[in-house]
Write a structure and sequence with these properties.
Helix content is 82%, strand content 0%. The chain is mainly α. Helix 2 (24-36) runs antiparallel to helix 3 and helix 3 (38-66) packs across helix 7 (147-181).
């Protein structure tokens, strides 16, 4: 039970923190909650969360097959690490340029639930983001390849996503203005965290390939 709660906690924590940097999703949920009300904001969040959880669950099932393809898994491990490194560099560049993010969508004519599902479906970072973090958690022996752990993991992800959106739903425009005011500091912090993650991941990769560790975890 302790392992399940740990997996649940990490899924929720990563998802919550991943929802905080300004982007299309949280700026849109802020617009909806301010213009149409808190209820519609949560409807949008639920639509986005459902799509994200389904994508992550499917990706985790695929990892079981990929773990047997050691070269492919090793390649994906490099890809995931490269993506995290790219996001870290992008955060530092954004901090240097002092850029933020703003978005404007025709939310008045689209139902919040379908707006959330559509934006989540068209988010290109879902799979690499969660494959990357899932690989990191497997490397740390936190996430293990079992249906029960996967289900609790994605449940934590779903709750973390809702909690992250709730921050923007309740804080509204005030929070966005504050984050924009301190965007440089936020981007630097995100960049540092991602860079540390990359370093840890590279060290793990040099020791024992993730595919080998994953295959061992699958053995009874």
């Amino acid at each position: 039970m302790q392992n399940i709660l740990r997996v649940f906690f990490w899924g929720m924590l990563v998802s919550f923190l991943g929802s905080l940097p300004l982007g299309t999703m949280n700026v849109t949920v802020t617009q909806i909650s301010v213009q149409r009300g808190i209820t519609d904001g949560f409807v949008f969040a639920i639509g986005s969360m459902i799509v994200e959880v389904i994508i992550v669950r499917i990706a985790l099932v695929g990892m079981k097959w990929m773990a047997k393809q050691h070269k492919l898994f090793r390649f994906l491990e490099y890809v995931a690490t490269s993506i995290i490194l790219f996001l870290a560099i992008a955060s530092f560049v954004a901090a240097y340029k002092m850029t933020g993010f703003a978005s404007s969508l025709p939310i008045q004519t689209i139902k919040p639930f379908w707006t959330g599902t559509f934006l989540s479906l068209t988010n290109p970072l879902h799979i690499p983001f969660w494959l990357g973090w899932s690989t990191v958690l497997m490397n740390k022996n936190i996430l293990k390849p079992s249906a029960i752990q996967y289900n609790w993991y994605v449940t934590g992800i779903g709750i973390g996503t809702i909690l992250g959106f709730a921050v923007f739903i309740y804080a509204g425009n005030y929070l966005v203005s504050q984050i924009l005011r301190h965007q440089t500091l936020l981007n630097c912090a995100i960049g540092i965290v991602l860079l540390i993650t990359v370093i840890i991941q590279v060290i793990k990769m040099r020791q024992v390939p993730a595919s080998v560790r994953y295959s061992k975890m699958m053995q009874p």
